[in-house]
Amino acid sequence: MKKLVLLFGFSFIIFSCASADKQAKNPEQKPVQHQEAIKIKKECRNYVGRMEKCLKEAKGKDYRKIWSQCEGKVMWDMLKEYQDNGFCFDEDECKQKVLDKINNCKEERTYIFRKYYR
Q1: Distance between CA 53 and CA 74 in Å, rounded?
Q2: How far apart are CA 109 and CA 116, in angstroms?
Q3: 76-90 pLDDT per residue, tens
Q4: Are 113 and 67 in contact (CB under 8 A)?
Q5: By C-alpha distance, which of 73, 82, 75, 65 is closest to 105?
């Protein structure tokens, strides 16, 4: 009787270790990465706000296509805003200012992309 109990206990331990080993090696189980919220710089709030609004309203399945459409729309809106408010003298200067503004917000841009990519 003692041998039977020991045999049962021993086989239970081996079985549980083997199944735990299989679960640990299962490639389908990916760890969930939590993204920490970042502090948005004052000069990036306009861009971030416009992008978030566009991404929330966008419909479709291909996120990269939605992202590029929203980014184009936001760039165009910012360009028009700069021209209308007289922040620049010609179109090329305005384009460069908008691109510089967006390039200065790389961290925020990456954060938004990952946030809405889920």
Answers
A1: 10
A2: 11
A3: 999 999 889 888 888
A4: yes
A5: 75
